[in-house]
Amino acid sequence: MLMRTDPFREFDRLTQQLLGNASGTWSRPTAMPMDAYREDDAYVIALDLPGVAPDAIDIDVERNMLTVRAERRPVAQGEGVQMELSERPLGVFSRQVMLADTLDTEHISADYEAGVLTLRIPIAERAKPRKITVTGGADRKEIQG
């Protein structure tokens, strides 16, 4: 049998259940923690999804809106299973991020390892710095009339 060592954790869990934050649904998903940063010529978004099966993750891009949805399902189910303690949040998790026009949404890559979903979004070629050649007056012909 498992014993609790933190008496306030149960109070926090009950408060979350009363406020409707304990588990997300498809119509009202729970937010997932995220980090975002630039690395060389790409933006990287890392989302925490521990315990989520890769086939339960859905990634969509519509216009410039990136949507990540995932569902964590109960692990122990069936006859003879009696849940003793359940603190891990279950249900649907979602996060939406508005992407800048300078990102190449056609070439987003996704990797899922150790419970972290990592999205790499390359910077579009048109948004990268480039040199502009300046031509001098000697290169122009004057038209006389």
From TrEMBL:
Domain SHSP intervals = 25-137
Q: Which PROSITE patterns match?
A: SHSP
Write down the InterPro entries for this protein, in alphabetical order. Answer: A-crystallin/Hsp20_dom (IPR002068), HSP20-like_chaperone (IPR008978), Small_HSP (IPR031107)
> Taxonomically, which superkingdom?
Bacteria
Q: Any stretches that span the bilayer, and where are they?
A: none
Identify its protein family. Answer: Belongs to the small heat shock protein (HSP20) family.
PANTHER family per the UniProt record, alphabetical: HEAT-SHOCK PROTEIN 20 FAMILY MEMBER
Q: What is this protein called?
A: Hsp20/alpha crystallin family protein
Question: What is the source species?
Answer: Streptomyces plicatus
